[in-house]
Design a protein that fits this description.
13 helices, binds pyridoxal-5'-phosphate, 374 residues, 3-stranded antiparallel β-sheet, globular
Length: 374
């Protein structure tokens, strides 16, 4: 299709479209729930937990957001002051803060150069007598290669808490992201693969006692029968959000297919560009099944590319404000140097990938990128 550049406007993420795409249905859901006065811990939350549990083959607690979920994980595992937990530096601050705010010490380590996820060799090098856990982040909708990570954890008797905020539906060896270690958290933030209309999250675990602990912690220490067992707090998922997610979950496999289709399209059109390093393309029946929360590439002349695409109406984003966890000066990691992560943040940029984007827009984005490098 021939398009006039002046009229092209492709936002990195179209927030209103999340709602407008199915406005009538969402209004109906809102009306039905509110008219019943069903706001907190109602049947929609039960349904949400049951559906997600069947889907991921794990036990599920719906929580207020993934950040709360990760904090609850460490609380449930009784992290103690001074305990060290190894995480990737290429992750959201929420991964590291869940350790820090439970009294632990986050130890950010380097990424691997194949898929930019936590590097198992860096994990091994960071282990000492104070290390109690590993926190892999399944970034951009790709589950880490969990074979070496679980092997290291077993050898050193370490906890594994997975930040699967970006990875609902992603698998490794057929097993769902967030279900390999002690527990893990998923996010339903609006721009995530399955976005709600606000904050929402879930904790996944395969361990019954961890499940019970997290359930109590997220609802004032009460168990499912409502009996007070321990101290707790309020990190419950809103019933309305659960209802919206339940509705969207019905079509989630189509969402995953479309995201993989877009990733495939970018790969086909851009893999010949020498100045770009692309993420692994989608594969059928491989070790990894990726859901492409983001399409993050490494680009030469990254800042110029970003400006050029912006001038042509294409929105892009640099993840985490362009810094790894250890690069935020005020957070106290000043002595840490992670060359691969730092190189990564000089070049990384995310191209639009979402359910609003049309094929002709993808075509336009690729044309512009090819033009920039030609
Ligand atoms: C979005 C995100 C979080 C936080 O999720 P919330 O639901 O917004 O709290 C944590 N970790 C990663 C990797 C994320 O992308």
């Amino acid at each position: 299709m021939l398009v006039n550049d002046e009229f092209m406007k492709i936002p990195f993420f179209n927030y209103p479209d999340l709602y407008l795409s199915e406005k009538d249905t969402f209004l109906k859901i809102f009306d039905e729930i509110c008219s019943r006065g069903a706001f907190i811990l109602q049947k929609e939350v039960d349904e949400f937990e049951k559906k997600l549990s069947e889907y991921s083959n794990s036990k599920v607690v719906g929580v207020a957001n993934a950040t709360d979920g990760l904090e609850l994980c460490w609380m449930a595992l009784s992290l103690r002051p001074g305990d060290e937990v190894i995480c990737s530096s290429h992750t959201m601050l929420a991964t590291a803060s869940s350790i820090k705010l439970n009294g632990g010490i986050p130890v950010p380590v380097d990424i691997n150069e194949n898929d930019f996820l936590i590097d198992p060799k860096s994990i091994e090098n960071a282990i000492n007598s104070r290390t109690v856990g590993i926190m892999p982040t399944h970034l951009n909708g790709r589950t880490c290669n969990m074979d070496p990570i679980m092997k290291i954890a077993k050898e050193h008797k370490l906890f594994v808490v997975e930040d699967a905020a970006q990875a609902l539906g992603s698998t490794f060896r057929g097993r769902h992201s967030g279900t390999f270690g002690n527990c893990g958290a998923i996010s339903f933030y609006p721009a995530k693969v399955l976005g709600s209309f606000g904050d929402a999250g879930a904790v996944l675990t395969n361990d019954q006692s961890t499940y019970e602990r997290i359930y109590q912690l997220h609802d004032h220490g009460r168990n499912i029968e409502g009996e007070v067992i321990s101290w707790g707090r309020n990190s419950r998922i809103d019933n309305l959000q659960a209802a919206f997610i339940n509705h969207k979950f019905r079509k989630y496999s189509e969402v995953i297919s479309r995201r993989r289709e877009i990733a495939n399209y970018y790969h086909k059109n851009l893999c010949h560009v020498r100045s770009l390093q692309l993420p692994p393309p989608p594969v059928e029946n491989g070790l990894h099944f990726d859901v492409y929360q983001n399409y993050e590439v490494l680009a030469e002349k990254r800042d110029d590319l970003k400006d050029y695409l912006s001038e042509h109406g294409i929105g892009t984003l640099i993840q985490w404000g362009g810094k790894g966890v250890h690069q935020w000066e005020r957070l106290g990691f000043n002595s840490i140097i992670l060359p691969k992560t730092e190189n990564f943040f000089n070049k990384c940029i995310m191209l639009p990938i979402n359910m609003s984007i049309k094929d002709f827009e993808l075509d336009y984005i690729c044309q512009k990128i090819l033009k920039f490098y030609s």
